[in-house]
Amino acid sequence: MKITVTIDDPTGDFQKRLLDLLAEYAADVETDTAWTAERAQRYYLALPARARRIVKEAASRGGYVDAATLRDGEDRSLRGHSASLKFTLDRGVRSGWWPEGMEPPIKAQGPGFGKVAGYSMPTDLIGVFLAAASKPAPGLQ
Fold this sequence. Notes:
The chain has 141 residues and is mostly helical. It has one domain (35-134). The protein is built from six helices and three strands; from the N terminus they run αααβααββα. It has helices at 12-24, 37-46, 49-60, 67-70, 81-95, 126-134, and strands spanning 64-66, 107-109, 118-120. Strands 1-3-2 form a three-stranded antiparallel sheet. Strand 2 (107-109) and strand 3 (118-120) form a beta hairpin. The longest helix has 15 residues, at 81-95. It starts with 11 loop residues before the first helix and ends in a 7-residue tail after the last helix.
């Protein structure tokens, strides 16, 4: 049996009671943590502009963009981008845009200690994030 439930803007009491019920049957509940077109677009649009560029470049380049490519523009610094990518993922959970347990769609690659060699995206997410990055933002058409 498969039941799909979507609840927009639940009241506090209803949300608590529903989450308590789901927690009671957690062993039997499978959470949908797939990146859908809607989730990808919401994530993409919630990112700051510089982080959006990373996602768009990685998707349009087959899943990887190197740091040198990202530094070609006016803004040469890559500092703080990984934090905004993670913050937006966490914000989506807090806002109810997607469930907890979503895998990050893009990850920094590098030797560590703050150095970034580039950013990679799983190949199965390239299409959905390329579509999200290509779609005009609502109200900007």
